[in-house]
């Protein structure tokens, strides 16, 4: 209709032309750009695409090989809880405090750089665990070159160990195994190596290619050898980036500091970030006002694989969000305005989709897991109603099926709720009572196929959950 109007032609004629080429259209049909070009051409008009295109500003194409210089590897430490990730990150940091700065007063900025005796550099993301890794990955960021998989020598391959292996494989990131706590009497590194063969992590002495380090994070044993292995692995990977261009990278973490405003830790991945540069990340932009390195010292510039903490952004971007610098502030504004508008639109569409989860989908999901317990995360607008709904849910079911409320509380449905639902071993639905998911939560739910049901009448909420339970008893085919 609009297109016809702009060309001064009856909508019916445009519809006819479209029909001739096999497309049924009414005045309300949305045409994509390519179709609009073709049909307008039939009437002697040209269509110009004025849609915003971020790739005009955010150049993700590869640099010419001759511009590339080696860069430090970026390392993430993963592993099962209590196997010693945090201790190992501390041990590595302490083993490398430069120039008499011992005492652990270095400021925590979410990542740190290590220089080994032989001059190799490596950057560690200082948030152990899988959440950070997956969060960065979810937004498409590849922020890790090497995963150090920590396994306690007195324990074994545990669920999160397997998860870490899977995450690393999915991301195509090589694994170095650090068998930790070898100081313990009960330590049995051989058993760990044996167990890992099942996951195709085979040490060189057994004919494999996986690097293994035996360490004690607590006593600092083997840490230097582990760093050597990381340097070796990095050499194999031939990591390179072009330092001589506008900076690009990824947000490691960001928060609001009462005194300083938004503070973001960024990992520069290529180019060089300088004080005064204009950076864009998601919906926010700003001029880099202050820039600190991982030692808490003011720094003027940061090249590839360097983490820095900056202030000056107009808001708090999400971890995992890419950032890039642009020369012109007007461009920065234009980009962020467009990103905001686009995200609002997507969020609205996703919210509409996420809240119309079909019962069949949910019961199928649970049946696939062969679990007859429906995990529920319950959020509501007031404590009283949340408790009432929860109590009602818990009364549902029978010997075979029941509701398991794994989290409940007052407030909107957040990304954190969705993450929990997504990581629940069997199916999990989120029920919002008089509350809805925020845009981020809706997006993550969509990506992870997490069902969100929203209700404003207690009876309806109970009824729907009851129906899901019933469907578990008599499977829908
Ligand atoms: P995380 O949950 O993987 O981050 O593990 P932590 O670093 O918090 O360590 C869990 C527990 O194991 C703590 O009590 C540490 O003191 C202990 N631990 C860590 N590394 C070692 C080690 O090399 N030897 C011994 N004996 N204990 C360790």
Write a structural description.
With 477 residues, the chain is an alpha/beta fold. 35% of the residues lie in helices and 24% in strands. It contains 14 helices and 20 strands. The protein has a six-stranded mixed beta sheet with strand order 3-4-2-5-6-7. A six-stranded antiparallel beta barrel has the order 9-10-15-13-12-16. A four-stranded parallel beta sheet has the order 18-17-19-20, sandwiched between helices. α11 packs parallel to α14. The radius of gyration is 27 Å and the shape is globular. The two termini are 43 Å apart. It binds guanosine-5'-diphosphate. Guanosine-5'-diphosphate binds at residues 79, 81-87, 128, 180-181, 183-184, 216-218. GTP binds at residues 79-86, 126-130, 180-183. It is found in: Cytoplasm. Residues 70-240 form the Tr-type G domain. Belongs to the TRAFAC class translation factor GTPase superfamily. Classic translation factor GTPase family. IF-2 subfamily. This is Translation initiation factor IF-2.
Ordered list of secondary-structure elements with their pairings:
Elements: H1 2-7, H2 11-20, H3 33-42, E1 69-70, E2 74-79, H4 85-95, E3 111-115, E4 121-125, H5 130-138, E5 146-152, H6 159-171, E6 175-180, H7 189-197, E7 211-214, H8 223-237, E8 240-241, E9 248-257, E10 261-270, E11 273-274, E12 278-281, E13 284-292, E14 301-302, E15 306-313, E16 322-326, H9 329-354, H10 359-369, E17 373-380, H11 383-395, E18 402-410, H12 415-423, E19 428-433, H13 439-448, E20 451-455, H14 458-473
Helix pairs in contact: 5-6, 9-13, 10-14, 11-14, 12-13
């Amino acid at each position: 209709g609009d297109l016809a109007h702009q060309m001064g032609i009856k909508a019916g004629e445009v519809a006819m032309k479209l029909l001739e080429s096999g497309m049924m259209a009414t005045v309300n049909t949305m045409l994509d750009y390519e179709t609009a070009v073709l049909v307008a051409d039939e009437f002697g008009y040209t269509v110009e695409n004025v849609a915003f295109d971020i790739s005009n500003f955010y150049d993700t194409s590869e640099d010419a090989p001759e511009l590339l210089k080696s860069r430090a590897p970026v390392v993430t430490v993963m592993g099962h809880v209590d196997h010693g990730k945090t201790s190992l990150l501390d041990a590595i940091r302490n083993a490398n405090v430069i120039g008499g700065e011992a005492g652990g007063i270095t400021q925590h900025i979410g990542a740190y750089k290590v220089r080994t005796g032989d001059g190799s550099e490596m950057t560690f993301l200082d948030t152990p665990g899988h959440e950070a890794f997956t969060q960065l990955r979810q937004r498409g960021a590849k922020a890790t070159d090497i995963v150090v998989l920590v396994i306690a020598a007195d324990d074994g391959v545990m669920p999160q160990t397997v998860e870490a292996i899977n995450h690393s494989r999915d991301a195509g990131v090589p694994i170095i195994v650090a068998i930790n706590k070898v100081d313990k009497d009960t330590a049995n590194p051989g058993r760990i190596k044996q167990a890992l063969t099942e996951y195709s992590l085979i040490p060189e002495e057994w004919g494999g290619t996986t690097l293994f380090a035996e360490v004690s994070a607590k006593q600092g044993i083997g840490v230097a050898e582990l760093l050597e292995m990381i340097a070796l692995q990095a050499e194999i990977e031939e990591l390179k980036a072009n330092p001589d261009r506008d900076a690009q990278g990824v947000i490691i973490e960001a928060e609001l500091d009462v005194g300083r405003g938004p503070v973001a830790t960024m990992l520069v991945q290529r180019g060089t970030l300088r004080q005064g540069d204009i950076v864009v990340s998601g919906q926010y932009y700003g001029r880099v006002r202050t820039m600190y390195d991982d030692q808490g010292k003011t720094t003027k510039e940061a090249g590839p694989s360097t983490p820095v903490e900056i202030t000056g952004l107009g808001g708090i971007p999400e971890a995992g969000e890419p950032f890039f610098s642009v020369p012109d502030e007007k461009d920065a504004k234009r980009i962020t305005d467009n990103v905001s508008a686009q995200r609002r639109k997507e969020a609205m569409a996703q919210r509409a989709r996420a809240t119309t989860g079909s019962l069949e989908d949910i019961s199928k999901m649970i049946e696939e897991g062969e679990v007859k317990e429906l995990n529920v995360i319950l959020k509501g607008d007031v404590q009283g109603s949340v408790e009432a709904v929860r109590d009602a849910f818990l009364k549902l079911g029978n010997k075979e099926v029941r509701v398991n409320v794994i989290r409940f509380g007052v407030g909107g449905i957040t990304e954190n709720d969705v993450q929990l639902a997504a990581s629940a071993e069997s199916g999990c639905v989120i029920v919002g009572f008089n509350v809805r998911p925020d845009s981020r939560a809706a997006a993550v739910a969509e990506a992870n196929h997490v069902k969100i049901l929203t209700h404003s009448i207690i009876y309806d909420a109970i009824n729907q959950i009851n129906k899901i339970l019933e469907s578990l008893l008599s499977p829908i085919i």
